Input
Amino acid sequence: MSEDLPTLPPNASLWTRLNLAMKCLQVLQDDPGHPHYGPLFNACLESGTYAKIARRWRKTHEGQAMLEDRPSMQGPDLDLAALEALPAHTLGHGLFRYFHDLGIDPFVSDFPIENDVDFLSKRYRETHDILHVLTGYEIDDYSEMELQAFVFGNMGLKQCLMIMTFGPMRMLPKVGPWKMRHYVSDLRKAYKRGKASKNLLGVRFEDMWDRPLEDVQRELVAPAPPKKHVSPLLGQHAMAA
Output
């Protein structure tokens, strides 16, 4: 890792965190899978959130086991060949098709995992792609904003608010103001859908690869409300913080 890359100072102030998060966001707009700026963006905004989640999880057997086991879905730990070999209707094969059809690789980060907060930050980053598979939100910029709203409702991550706030500035020149008139309404629906779904950060997807995708979706994710319009497809892999 280059020594020129920024890091989050110990006991950083709110202003330092927000300023560094904005710098990360500028990079992530063009390189959403960046292995340094993605986790750094997460760390700037979510350390307190993840700490609260970890304290809550430590009070339950299932949550404590997750924090102790620290399962991983990073690239080296995700056997895409095994997922490809699963029946076409399964969750595992669906995730393989997602990566294959889009021509992208699973998330990889070399950030050290030293505590519960580090693990939860990494866990969200590496499960972001499977959220696309489960929710049906595509990877164009508009749909990514819907997924961010879903995640905000589901997990309460503050970074989603920043992404949704600055997302329209990125999209507006591409789609025009008339196509953005449903933006707030669609995000509100996605937020409510996320809130009505099972908390996905604590799901061990690794134990579900051979289950039918539709069964997993029914169990974990609230149904998507019908749309009165078609979201603009921009054809680019959007931000995945």
The radius of gyration is 18 Å. The chain has ten helices and no strands.
